[in-house]
Amino acid sequence: xxxxxxxxxxxxxxxxxxxxxxxxxxxxxxxxxxxxxxxxxxxxxxxxxxxxxxxxxxxxxxxxxxxxxxxxxxxxxxxxxxxxxxxxxxxxxxxxxxxxxxxxxxxxxxxxxxxxxxxxxxxxxxxxxxxxxxxxxxxxxxxxxxxxxxxxxxxxxxxxxxxxxxxxxxxxxxxxxxxxxxxxxxxxxxxxxxxxxxxxxx
Length: 202
Ligand code: ATP
Ligand code: AMP
Ligand code: MG
Fold this sequence. Notes:
Layout: E1 7-12, H1 19-32, E2 37-41, H2 42-52, H3 67-87, E3 92-96, E4 100-103, E5 106-109, H4 113-119, E6 123-128, H5 131-140, H6 153-174, E7 177-182, H7 188-200
Parallel strand pairs: 1-3, 1-6, 2-3, 6-7
Antiparallel strand pairs: 4-5
């Protein structure tokens, strides 16, 4: 476990479940309580390198790149995130990412040994919602985000189960806690409160 003053967390959940939205609200709520939270998005690091190299134009194309390219981008992102986590002076450092990525090659872990040991989180939050809600949220974002890998509510449900299991498997590698957080429709605040309470207890 990390012996640093900064509390480290990873937030995962399937595409469209609401990770980025919950985290935006968490920063605001924590800020009002005088808690400084830094959130970084793992995909931003990968997309920056991929777009600078002219490989892709949109973040949702990352999953379609050849696996060996994704692996290299993933490794580089993990190293950079570790550097940034050590440099900053925040109370809490959070990584917005994925425990399982639905790639062209098949399901691929977002937090394999070399990634999770670079970040060394105290806790992994798994954001979940009803499969029907995720389906609706994805439909709302059509044209902005391209989350078409799971075609039906049944496939979303199955992917959510696999992603939860992948998060648990990754947490075992670093002895991190795993907290399942429900992001119910119109209830982002409840998810935020649950995460904040948990962070205060690290
Ligand atoms: P990705 O992994 O693809 O980045 P994400 O998990 O970060 O996805 P968001 O972009 O935060 O997902 O949210 C997806 C959509 O769902 C957005 O349109 C957002 O406004 C909406 N949303 C998020 N949480 C809720 C909620 N509790 N109730 C209703 N809508 C929500
Ligand atoms: P996001 O905006 O969080 O969906 O991130 C954009 C994309 O970045 C994802 O669809 C993945 O292709 C990629 N990505 C994010 N986190 C990881 C990770 N830990 N491992 C591999 N790819 C990731
Ligand atoms: Mg997001």
